[in-house]
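Throughout this review, each integer encodes one residue's backbone shape. One record appears below.

===
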Amino acid sequence: DKGKNLHVYVIGATNKPWDLDWPFIRRFQKRILVPLPDYHARLMMFKHYTQNLTLGPDVNLHELARLSEGFSGSDIKDVCQAAHLKVIGEFFESGQAANKLAKPRPLRMSDFRQILEERKPSVSLDMLTLYNRWFEAFKAL
């Protein structure tokens, strides 16, 4: 389109910004550190990732958001999927799946607690320190 002023934005993302060389880094005018989700963001993620799941009355999403401090968005998604797969696995192992009218039981708070106890956040405190140091050295925003 000759004569038109087109705006092109290039966006990059990495989990290891310290592995990038300086000539590459300086070509990105804006550098943004995306922190781990806070309590409210974790709560919204639990609401989103459980909206199509059958939850028992004891499931407390506020408590799950509290218990998952330090977890990334991907970690929270994995926790919800693992809890769901746990219940589905029980359903098939019990033989109930042979009954066409049977349904898996609702997820319970204990299902989520078990998964949270078995999993660690994917981002360690050491990694957070490295991210913050890099951002302080190279931030542009």
In short: The chain has six helices and no strands. The chain has two domains: 1-34+125-141, 37-122.
